[in-house]
Amino acid sequence: MPRIAYFGPSGTFTEMALAKLESTGTFGGPVERVPAPSQGATIELVRAGQVDGAVVPIESSVDGSIAPTLDALALGPRLQIIAETELNVAFTILARPGIELSQVRRIAAYPIAAAQVRIWLAHRLPEAEMFTSASNAAAAEDVVAGHADAAVSTALAGERLGLTALATDVADVDSAVTRFVLVAPPQPAPPRTGVDRTSIVLELANEPGSLMRAFAEFATRGIDLTRIESRPTRTGMGTYRFYLDCVGHIDDTAVAEALKALHRTAARIRFLGSWPATSATGAPPPADEPAAAWLADLKKGVADL
Question: Active-site positions?
Answer without folding.
Answer: 178, 180
